[in-house]
Write a structure and sequence with these properties.
This protein is an alpha/beta fold. 36% of the residues lie in helices and 18% in strands. The strands form 2 sheets. Strands 4-3-5-2-1-6-10-11-9 form a 9-stranded mixed sheet, sandwiched between helices. It has a two-stranded antiparallel sheet with strand order 7-8.
Length: 241
């Protein structure tokens, strides 16, 4: 008797990427080779029958909070950061389409020439039709991070989980690159993350996940196959639930 094919544990997910994921080894901006590699891994998930949307940050171009710290008006700085996420979204869309994925780029800030306006029902319809949806422009409001935007979109479209792609293989008690005694957690509760001040997502994003029972899977993006493994419930990274 042939073994049963393992099925994914999530039907619809939101992948949260930091803007730095697109810069590759060059340390800034956008590296088309890095974009293409990420696109291949997203395609692998989509071909497994999972509906996937992506929220990407803009830290490889600029961080609004850093500009604000140097005296710029916080709202203006944050809007600039949101525009950076649209640039990243366009780069990722191009990479995805080059590997054969149908995509739609939706933005919370209207710019009809380059992206569709974010409309919840339209986003869900794109996913149902097998397209990869990229959410850009954050929430469309200053003072909110792209982590919060990712959680908000995930809740709105009825996603089963947030997949938080990072440079490390999960959540640690301290920065493992600085503290060699840092402890890695396999599972955490939302309140533990908040109480311990663990830098996973900001408190607003964690609270939204907790209020809506939305699990967060934190894993290393740089290891091939990790996005798909997270969707299939394999032991990868840290789960916050």
């Amino acid at each position: 008797m042939a073994p049963k094919t393992k099925k994914p544990i999530y039907k619809r997910v939101v992948l949260k990427l930091g803007g730095e994921a697109l810069q590759g080894n060059q340390g800034y901006g956008i590296n088309p080779i890095a974009c293409r590699e990420i696109a291949k891994r997203i395609k692998e998930v989509k071909e497994s029958g999972i509906e996937i949307a992506v929220v990407i940050g803009g830290g490889n171009i600029l961080r609004g909070e850093k500009f604000a710290e140097q005296g710029m008006d916080r709202s203006i700085a944050d809007y600039m950061g949101m525009l950076a996420t649209v640039i990243n979204g366009m780069a990722l869309q191009d990479a995805l389409e080059n590997v054969g994925c149908f995509t739609r780029l939706l933005t919370a800030i209207q710019m009809a020439q380059v992206a569709e306006p974010y409309i919840r029902r339209r986003a869900m319809r794109h996913l149902e039709k097998g397209r990869v949806v990229i959410f850009a422009g954050g929430t469309g409001n200053p003072y909110f991070t792209t982590d919060t935007a990712a959680v908000l979109r995930a809740i709105e479209i009825g996603a089963d989980a947030i997949l938080k792609a990072t440079k490390v293989d999960g959540i640690y008690s301290a920065d493992p690159k600085v503290d060699k005694h840092a402890k890695k957690y396999d599972k955490l509760k939302y309140l533990e993350v908040i109480k311990r001040g663990l830098k996973v997502m900001d408190a607003t994003a964690i609270s939204l996940c907790m209020d809506n029972n939305l699990p967060i899977v934190v894993f290393n993006l740089n290891i091939k196959g990790n996005i798909k493994k997270a969707c299939f419930g394999e032991k990868v990274g840290t789960i916050v639930s």
